[in-house]
Each structure stands twice: as structure tokens, then as C-alpha cells.
Amino acid sequence: MLDLQQLQTFRVVALTNSFNRAAAELGYSQPSVTFHIQSLERELGATLFTRHRLSRGATLTEAGRHALAFADKLFGLVQEAKATLGHERTEVG
Amino acid sequence: MLDLQQLQTFRVVALTNSFNRAAAELGYSQPSVTFHIQSLERELGATLFTRHRLSRGATLTEAGRHALAFADKLFGLVQEAKATLGHERTEVG
DNA sequence: TAAAAATACTCCATAGGTATTTTAT
DNA sequence: ATAAAATACCTATGGAGTATTTTTA
Lengths: 93, 93
Fold this sequence. Notes:
Low-confidence stretches of chain A: 88-93
CATH topology of chain A: Arc Repressor Mutant, subunit A
Order of helices and strands of chain A: HHHEEH
Radius of gyration of chain A: 14 Å
CATH architecture of chain A: Orthogonal Bundle
CATH class of chain A: Mainly Alpha
Helix content of chain A: 55-70%
Shape of chain A: globular
Structural class of chain A: mainly alpha
Largest sheet of chain A: 2 strands, antiparallel
Largest interface: A-B, 27 and 27 residues
Number of strands of chain A: 2
CATH superfamily of chain A: Winged helix-like DNA-binding domain superfamily/Winged helix DNA-binding domain
Oligomer: homodimer
Mean pLDDT of chain A: 91
């Protein structure tokens, strides 16, 4: 089953173009970020990032760009739902 | 963070009007269903079901009806995303 | 040889189960 | 008394961490 926490990790990696920077930003270890992305790729049946090395980071694949658009819509929907249900918390997730 | 597995449990409870029937249908124990619904209610900040006893089951509250509409939209979006990403699996989740 | 991701492994938090209790009619 | 949900408690799985290795420019 799709995991929203992994999807959030995916968004941060996409934003930073780096597993390491995403890890720092999210307060996870780098291997946890790797695990999140690998799980998500398995779940969605698509490779989301092209992994580079030596300071070039990771960049979205075509499937990754589709997935990012989907993630944005999905978290928007979640925010909307929480607002409708009168919940006061505002962070995504 | 919202858990899609709990949201799916919620849908089945809403459909069957019963924690016990939902448990049977999903292959969970009844306490697990209780736990899913309680977590979800805490996460969303709203009571989703009115609990009855003695064969009368559980019925959606007003917030629960909103949440169900949201869940339907959300799982539809997930299905769409998986289709777009060329994934062949069809079950929700 | 250096920067970044992947792998190996360990551990503990929590999701899930069984047994029991509570509630309401 | 009975049907159904809640609670108590225990266990095992897997998510998260640290240490290390691999990769490639």
C-alpha cells in the first residue's frame, strides 16, 4: 500500500535533488531516505530518480515528474479534507 | 501522518456499518479495526462513527460522511496515478 | 580520491493478535 | 443475556539508525 510518509520524502528529494539533503531536512538518516524511495519505486512500479554521484545528486525521471504532480494533488486533497473536517493543524501529512 | 491502510479500513467499516464485519472482510482482528478507526479519528480530529451496540453496528457521523467522500477521491487519485505510471496492479491501495 | 547512494546489520517501536471487559438493550 | 466495540497485554515485524561499501567522475 502507498505510504504518504514515503511520498513526502519523495517530494523533498525531488525539491533538493539530493538524498542526503532530503535526509537532513527531514531529520532522517540517508539510508532511510534510500529505503523510502526504493519502496515507493517498487510500489509504483517505476524508477523515480536518476542517481548521479560526485556532487551531481539525483534528478527526476519522466515517471518521477508525473509522480511529483500526483503527490502535489494528493497532499492538496489531504489538506482540504483536514480543513473541511475542522482540524486546526496545518502541516502536510 | 494520515495512513492509507487505516483509510481503507474506514471505507470498509462505512460500507458494512460494522467493525466486526469489516475485520472479517479485511482479514484483521476486530481490535485492529478499532485501532485503525481510533487513529484516524485522532489524526483527522473528528469522530467518524456513532457506535451502537446489540446488532445495531456503527453508522457514519456527518464528519464521517465528509471523510468518506474524501477517501473516495483520494483512492481514485491513487488509482489514476498508478495507471499513468504504467503500473499493472489494479487493487486499491 | 571524494562525494553521494546502496548495502549490511542491529535494535526497538508499534502494528497486529488473543483474551477479556465494558456497554447498552 | 447477548451482541458488538473497547481495553489490556504480549509478540513479532519492519522501520530507523550506525557503520561500511560501492560507484563514477
